[in-house]
Amino acid sequence: MSEFDTVVIGGGHNGLICATLLARIGQRVLLLEAKDTLGGLAADREFAPGFHAPVAQTLYGLQAAVVKDLRLTDYGFTEKADLIDLIALSTKEAPITISDDVLRGAQADDTLAFVKYRAQLKTFADALAPFWGKTMPRIGMGSLKDLMTFGHMGLKLRLLGRDDMLEFFRVATLPMRDLVDEHFESDSLKAALCWDGLVGSKMAPRSPNQSVLTLLNRMAGRHEGQHMIPAGGMTGFITVLERAARSAGVEIRTDAAVQKIIIDGDENGQHCSGVRLANGGEISAGCVVSSADPKTTFLKLVGAAHLEIEFTNRIRRLRCDGYVAKVNLALTDLPVFTGIDRPDGRMILAPSMDTLEFAYDNAKYGELPQQPALEVLIPSLRQPGLAPKGQQVLSANVMYVPGELKGGWTDEARRTFMATIMQTLEQYAPGITALVSASELLTPADLETEYHVSGGHWHHAEPAVDQLLMMRPTYEAAQYRTPIDGLFLCGAGSHPGGDVNGNAGRNAAREILA
């Protein structure tokens, strides 16, 4: 008899959500996390004595269904949103702020255009919203359930009306640059609006693919894509998920790295029967669910010997090059940003879309961006406990930064890049360098090593057209099931993708229980 009905590998938010929903129906569930804390990229991180900042610093796509199904409000999650303004900064233009869907500081034409722009995107996001929380049908399958899913999707799009439906099919595949160029004049505003479709991916404003679809996915959350910091911050949110999991009966073990997924075979085929830990122990289970990225799951934990060569080759070819670096600064005081009364918004430091495009061009050749684009937040203004009294934390996402740098990430390369980042910050917050008492740079290579994410990619696999929907991460593993009986996926490499929205974990649990 198996020790557990299900073992879940990985204690990020998707693993916690999947484990909780399985335990709720009476399964004996064990969750194993390699690190000493839960939460993955959203886990607490003390980067200097007394200074804290997780890699994932905000919520912006959390699904209402996840909150409801896990009864998160019972465990301390508050529905009250602490929404964060988006501020477009430029050395050539005055700051432009988007606060609760209202544009301020822009020219009159851009202000009027923004109303139409947001209304159109909300319409499209609402039409697609139900499908991020569904299992996408397998290619070539024709079951009643699959036909109903396609029928539902078709009906939702048809109900948009003829004009909106045609516009949806045109807009959904546009590069972000084309979309915002159609509506706005301000260079800094256009760059800031591009950010939420591009961040975390290996795409720039001109890249033809699906960045608009990514933006619509992010707008399907509880606050239509607006960023928020939950009560207690991101680590507080993970604490809520942990409480829900333990209350449901999930057994959680940290410092419990999985070395191998155990595969048994007989005349009926292969079956997953448990896991072997790095310490040599083995745990038997009727089902194993991996929230690790697909390359880690199949190539390291399962092994190519247990997979068909065609499937193995598709997994090897998955694109998962992370392009986002993380910078954390410990500050002795609050910096002053030019033109801003109080820097408590999400500040995009990218004067134009060319800033993003040129940084991307550098990165794709393994070079450091000459002018990095930054998303800057001072979370300690909303969570004073992140820093000692009277001091502050600055946390920034930096695009585009290659994980595989020409010449490698040497100490000299790190110092050079940090100097470039500080020069960029000085343009917007003069004197900020003198306030820095400690700093941290996490490159995609660091994220890969420390958080066990292939390529350091936020989303475990690039959210491109050939790696989305019923193709995510690839066929034969795109419905959370895998070619091996008893092995499932529930991480960001599954539909609908990354970000802290919980859909992959919730969808996987429902598929396992189907």
Kindly describe this structure.
With 514 residues, this protein is an alpha/beta fold. It has three domains: 4-40 and 60-79 and 232-319 and 458-513, FAD/NAD(P)-binding domain (3-Layer(bba) Sandwich), CATH 3.50.50; 112-218; 324-402 and 406-442. The chain has helices at residues 13-24, 64-69, 108-132, 144-158, 162-171, 176-183, 187-198, 211-218, 233-248, 294-302, 309-316, 353-364, 411-428, 444-451, 503-513; strands at 4-9, 29-32, 46-48, 51-52, 86-89, 96-99, 102-104, 251-253, 258-266, 269-277, 282-290, 324-331, 346-349, 373-377, 392-399, 436-442, 487-489. The strands form three sheets. It has an eight-stranded mixed β-sheet with strand order 7-6-5-13-14-15-12-16, sandwiched between helices. Strands 1, 2, 8, 9, 10, 11 and 17 form a seven-stranded mixed β-sheet that branches. A hairpin with a 6-residue loop joins β5 and β6 (96-99). The model has no long low-confidence stretch (mean pLDDT 94).
Task: Briefly characterize the structure.
This protein has 514 residues and is an alpha/beta fold. The protein has helices spanning 13-24, 64-69, 108-132, 144-158, 162-171, 176-183, 187-198, 211-218, 233-248, 294-302, 309-316, 353-364, 411-428, 444-451, 503-513; strands spanning 4-9, 29-32, 46-48, 51-52, 86-89, 96-99, 102-104, 251-253, 258-266, 269-277, 282-290, 324-331, 346-349, 373-377, 392-399, 436-442, 487-489.
Identify the strand order in the major beta sheet.
Answer: 7-6-5-13-14-15-12-16
* The CATH top-level class label of the largest domain: Alpha Beta
State the helicity in percent bands.
Answer: 25-40%
- How would you name the CATH homologous superfamily of the largest domain? FAD/NAD(P)-binding domain
Q: How many structural domains in the coordinates?
A: 3
Structural class: alpha/beta
What is the global morphology?
Answer: globular
Please work out how many helical segments DSSP would assign.
15
**Mind summarizing the main beta sheet?**
8 strands, mixed
CATH topology of the largest domain: FAD/NAD(P)-binding domain
Strand content: 15-25%
What's the architecture of the largest domain, going by CATH?
3-Layer(bba) Sandwich
Mean pLDDT across every amino acid position? 94
